[in-house]
Amino acid sequence: MSFCQFLGGEIYKDHFKPGMYVCSQCNHPLFSSRSKFAHSSPWPAFTETIREDSVTKLMESLTAFKVLCGKCGNGLGHEFVNDGPMEGVSRF
Questions:
Q1: Pairing between strand 55-61 and 64-69?
Q2: Which residues of the chain have pLDDT under 50?
Q3: What is the extent of the structural domain holding 56?
């Protein structure tokens, strides 16, 4: 995982095989395929990280956090609060 490409280059959006998603820079465990769900955005979507320290979050607004790898600081995207597949669940 890293900054995803917007113009059709994202290969993990529709990838639903069992496994673990790790940082592309340092292999730090980030997300499990069990927390992945289909979403209309052009990027992969997850409901939770593997561990609390898998990522570092920086508040950008009341509904969005910038998400970085918890180990090396690689930019991963955002967490959107209350935008998950169920009420009260965030989307990474």
A1: antiparallel
A2: 1-6
A3: 39-91
